[in-house]
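[Q] Does anyone have a clean C-alpha cell version of this?
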Amino acid sequence: MTVGICAVILAAGEGRRLRPLTRDLPKALCPVGNVPLLDRAITRVAALGFDTPADVAVNAAYLADRISDHVGNRAHLSVEADGPLGTSGGVARLSSWIDGRAVLIGNADGYLADPARDPGKDVAALLDGWSGETVRMLTKPVPPGETGGFSGRRFAGFSLLPWRYVRDLPDGHGELVGTAWRPAEAAGELELIGYDGVYIDTGTPTDYLRANLHAANGRTLIDPTAEITGRVTDCVIGPHARVEGEATRVVLWPRAQIPAGEHLTDAIRAPGGLTVRVPR
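[A] Here you go.
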C-alpha cells in the first residue's frame, strides 16, 4: 500500500439506465465476464495494496444490503441510507474514515482492461510520480465528433484527490466533476493521465453487452456449472445457467435459461426470463 493514500470504490448508484436488469440487483453487482463489476474494482485496487477495511472503502445506497453482504469484511462500508449522494457526496461522507489521506477513487461500473499491464495494476499510473498536491484523472481521448471532457480527453473510471480537496468537498449530494475536477482544472492543478487500455462505462445495455463481449475476448465464456445442450456463439454464460436453444452475442446471468426452440440474439437475460434486447 502507498503510505498516506486510501481507496474508495463508488457503488451506490441505482443503475437506472440498465433497468429492468437492476430492479433487483445493484448495478455494481452486475457481472461482466462472469465477475461482478464491484469485484473487478476491488481486485484492481487490492493489486496496488489497498486490500483491508483500513485502506479501502465501498459506498452503498440502492439495495445496500446486497452490497454489504457481497463486500463482507473485504472493505469498509459506507451506507447512504437516504439515497445515493453522488460521486462527491459519497466521498465527503467518508471524510472521517479518509482522515487526512489522499484518496484513489474508482467507479464500480467502469470496465477497464489493459493487456499491456499486470492484471489489476492498470491504474497504477495515477500514483506513479505523484507530487501529492494535484488532482489526477485517468483519461482517454474524446472520440471524434463528441464534445465535452477535459482538454480533449474524458474520464476513464478512476481519479486521485489530495486530502485538501477531499476536506473541502461539500456535504450532501454532488458530483466530483463540479466539486473537484473543474475547480482543479481552473486552478491549473488537474493532471490528465492517459490510459491506453479499454474503458467502457457499462451504464447502458449496449455498453454493458459490449463490455461482456470484450471480456470474453472473441470467444464464448462459459461458467463450468452451466449446462449447454444447444448452440452458443460469442456469449457469456453465467453459473448454473442453461442453454437448450441457441444464443448469439448474449449475456446469460446466473440461473437464467434459453429453452429449446428459442434463438436469442444481442441480449441480456436474467433469471425468470427477464430479457433486455440490444439493437446492433
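[Q] Thanks! Anything notable?
[A] The helical segments are 37-46, 64-71, 86-93, 95-98, 163-167, 176-186, 205-216.
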